[in-house]
Design brief:
There is one protein chain. By secondary structure, this protein is α/β, with parallel strands linked by helices. The chain folds into two domains: about 160 residues, Rossmann fold (3-Layer(aba) Sandwich), CATH 3.40.50; about 180 residues, Glycogen Phosphorylase B (Rossmann fold). Helix 2 runs parallel beside helix 3 and helix 9 crosses helix 14. The longest helix is centred in the N-terminal third of the chain and has 15 residues.
Length: about 375
């Protein structure tokens, strides 16, 4: 019997305290496609406790391994605490990835902001060898906020000195999307953009205008995604007697804003899908059948859900703020709720305007195929 070759030694240690959503997507991609990785995770529950205590958790669970050369973690983990608790891990090349940053994460009242979460991220950057952000907006908002954030400390250290230490370590590496071929899921329309431009109201537009406009909102069911604006806009469309359908997707966690339960029966005749779809195939199918993907976010550092929907053929409507101007041309951005309502009102009256439109965003540049080499280089010793 031939002896099987021993597996290669684990050289990259992946740590994720909040293994859900985009955090899970990234860790799964790294684990599946990069050699010599080993991952330790914790469930995506009780984020605040994970931010406070995951360093102790991982210090006890991660077994010592002399072959480790690189440690990769998200900014939920207090890397500084872990390095102190585990000197063997402190000696590795330490990479921290920012899906978000707590210095500008929206809170309802500034006095409600818990200083500890942002402070954890700052000291993690100080001990890290590489600090990676999923967008320039994320990086710039973090670095520019460090001085004012640290100025809250009585008898503080000079905050500019902290920024000078962190800034040279920072870079942007976009979140890698899993962009498969969704052509089989897309609806077939006979109208071309050129035909639509020549005669938007003629026979050529009849088929794309036959069904109601389908609006998808694929975000987490939390206040920072501003579901209040989304639902108030949908109810105004309904009050005007416009024909449309909505799919309200995304994950729901412990504290779901009451606006979801209150508005579900009010929009009942317009609801096509409601709630998180466990099946990725079904999720992509819904995105492919939708016409417009809408963001009402008050906080967005990258926007995985919107880009996935655009890849599936949706026309994006996003705030003219946060990360969105970095990714989307101005024609897909709105500055006020009134502008948003006006755009949707127009699309409801003529769905062919979005169904025959080729979105001017190359989603492939955010794909794993394109970004894989950058992540391989980042995680090399």
């Amino acid at each position: 019997m031939e002896s099987q070759a021993a597996p290669p030694p684990a050289r990259v240690l992946l740590l994720e305290p909040f293994y859900g959503g985009s955090h899970k997507q990234l860790l799964d991609l790294l684990s599946a496609h990069l050699d010599s990785c080993v991952a330790f995770t914790a469930p995506a529950k009780k984020w605040h406790w994970k931010a406070r205590t995951s360093a102790l958790d991982f210090s006890q669970r991660v077994t010592p391994n002399p072959t480790y050369r690189v440690l990769f973690c998200s900014s939920v983990l207090n890397l500084c605490e872990l390095a102190a608790l585990r000197p063997d891990l402190a000696r590795l090349k330490k990479v921290v990835y920012f899906h978000e940053n707590q210095l500008v994460y929206p809170v309802r009242k500034e006095q409600d902001r818990d200083f500890q979460y942002g402070y954890n991220q700052i000291v993690s950057c100080l001990v890290a060898d590489a600090v990676v952000f999923n967008s320039a907006f994320n990086m710039d908002s973090f670095l520019s906020s460090v001085p004012s954030f640290l100025n809250k400390i009585p008898d503080r250290c000079p905050p500019d000195d902290v920024v000078r230490v962190i800034r040279p370590k920072c870079r942007v590496l976009h979140f890698p999307l899993r962009l498969g071929d969704v052509g089989r899921l897309l609806p077939k329309y006979s109208v071309t953009p050129a035909a639509h431009a020549d005669d938007a109201t003629g026979a050529a537009a009849t088929q794309p205008d036959a069904k109601p406009l389908h609006i998808v909102w694929p975000h987490r069911w939390e206040h920072d995604k501003d579901p209040e604006l989304f639902f108030s806009t949908m109810l105004k469309l309904k009050e005007e007697g416009l024909d449309f359908l909505v799919s309200v997707l995304g994950e729901a966690f412990t504290d779901v804003p009451e606006v979801f339960a209150r508005c579900r029966p009010l929009l009942d005749s317009h609801v096509l899908h409601w709630g998180y779809l466990e099946s990725r195939e079904l999720y992509l199918s819904v995105l492919c059948q939708a016409d417009v993907v809408l963001s009402t976010a008050q906080h967005e550092f990258f926007g995985v859900a919107v880009l996935e929907a655009v890849h599936c053929g949706c026309y994006p409507l996003c705030p003219k703020a946060l990360v969105y101007p970095e990714i989307f041309p101005a024609e897909y951005l709105y500055a006020t709720p009134q502008q948003l309502l006006k755009r949707l009102r127009s699309f409801c009256g003529q769905p062919s305007r979005v169904r025959t439109h080729a979105v001017k965003v190359d989603t492939s540049r955010f794909s794993w195929d394109v970004l894989k080499g950058d992540f391989q280089s980042l995680l090399s010793p």
